[in-house]
Amino acid sequence: MKKWTVMAVFLALPAGAAVAAVPYDAMPPGFDRPEIRTVPIAGIVNQYWYNYKADILEAEKELGSDLRHATDREDRWDAWDEWATEVVDADKDYVKEMRKKGYRVGRVTVG
After folding, report:
1. pLDDT tens per residue across span 14-32
2. Residue extents of the structural domains in the chain
3. Which long-range contacts (C-beta less than 8 Å, at least 24 apart) are formed by 26-32?
4. Predicted TM-score (pTM) of this structure
5. Is the dihedral of CA 48, 20, 28, 68 positive or negative?
């Protein structure tokens, strides 16, 4: 599926709509799941938000495929590790682009 097709699908969905289902129950014990944004930074829905959502969807599709083809525990762990790396990379790219546009990600510090 081309990125434009995926983007067209997301245009029809609300900003916080979930994407592909990830089998979190199949996640290896002790594996730290990265956060996936459900709302855009500063509430701004733009091409960077849709690119982020498309990247997450692609990572989830690859995870599903990798898990279906996994033959042992190491293959499954590698699939989850690759998925987590792609999710973190997508978030970094999204945050970077939004910062260029002047939008900042809020931080809360408890001291």
Report:
1. 444 444 578 888 888 888 8
2. 43-101
3. 26/67, 26/76, 27/80, 28/73, 28/76, 28/77, 28/80, 31/77, 31/80, 31/84, 32/84
4. 0.76
5. negative
